[in-house]
Design goal:
This protein has 274 residues and is α+β, with helices and mostly antiparallel strands. The protein is 28% helix and 35% strand. It is built from five helices and twelve strands. The strands form four sheets. A three-stranded antiparallel β-sheet has the order 1-3-2.
Length: 274
């Protein structure tokens, strides 16, 4: 009888420990890109959950048809100070991120680290949140009502961002004015990103959408040559004259120019494809 009581007591203790371990686990939806069917989910979701040190619970759902699905992942509560990327919908620029990310992180009982990035251009961005406690469940995504009709057509993936030359951009405020104009000239929209390629000479804006195709693979490094452009008096004059001179030679301006005969002749640096 004593042995039987000890065995029963040990079973109760083990069950309690097991229950407490399960109770501490958390379930959250993690973005996994487009998932097309159950077989695809069986391959994709374990990888997505494992990357976050979690395990797949066998559930998944599509939140943006043809664009984004999420996997149900079970993990322990996030420790204090851990940084997690939280979906925030489309964020177009730093100004919008400064308003939206603190709200998104606060809804998870966390604080924004000041970092964000775009995962699906025009569709989804994520905010980096420093967790202060348990990771709260993500907001419920309200899906559109199901359409009782033949299967919808496959939505093509959005065109990738393309860097478009914008001349020199001096700071974020300048980029906020300049880049929307540059992208609009390509019938595209600015995704909020820009960078300087030649300090003081050239910057590029990241444009999405529009009718241009993704840039072809680079076959060879362009060759720079000086092309005569007549007299150029200053930088503003060069910004107008050199692009036209290089374009007439089926080349592009590299942002450089110099005077070879004062008051008589200047040359523009043009890039020619080999």
């Amino acid at each position: 009888m004593k042995i039987e009581k000890v065995v029963r007591l040990w079973a109760v203790l083990c069950a309690g420990l097991l229950f407490s371990g399960v109770a501490s686990a958390q379930t959250r939806d993690l973005a996994a890109g487009p998932i097309w069917n159950q077989n695809h989910a069986n391959q994709r979701c374990p990888e997505v959950c494992s990357a976050q040190r979690a395990t797949w619970n066998g559930q998944w759902r599509t939140v943006v048809p043809g664009q984004q699905s999420v996997c149900g992942c079970v993990s322990a509560p996030a420790p204090s100070g851990q940084v997690a990327e939280v979906p925030a919908g489309p964020i177009w620029n730093n100004r919008l991120a400064n308003r939206r990310c603190p709200q998104v992180c606060a809804s998870r009982s966390a604080s924004w680290t000041g970092q964000w990035r775009t995962t699906i251009p025009g569709r989804m961005s994520v905010c980096a949140c420093a967790m202060g406690g348990r990771f709260a469940p993500p907001p419920v995504v309200v899906a559109p009502p199901p359409v009782v009709a033949p299967p919808p057509p496959v939505i093509a993936a959005p065109s990738p961002a393309r860097n478009v030359n914008a001349g020199p951009i001096w700071n974020q405020n300048h980029a906020n004015r300049r880049c929307p104009q540059v992208c609009a000239s390509q019938r595209a929209s600015w995704n909020g990103e820009w960078r300087t390629t030649i300090p003081g000479r050239m910057s590029v804006c990241a444009c999405v959408g529009g009718r241009f195709a993704p840039p072809p693979p680079v076959v060879a490094t362009p060759v720079a040559r000086d092309v005569q452009a007549g007299p150029i008096w200053n930088q503003n004059h060069a910004n107008r004259q050199c692009p036209r001179v290089c374009a007439s030679q089926r080349a592009s301006w590299n942002g450089q120019w110099r005077t070879v005969v004062p008051g008589q002749m200047s040359v523009c640096g043009c890039l020619f494809n080999q």
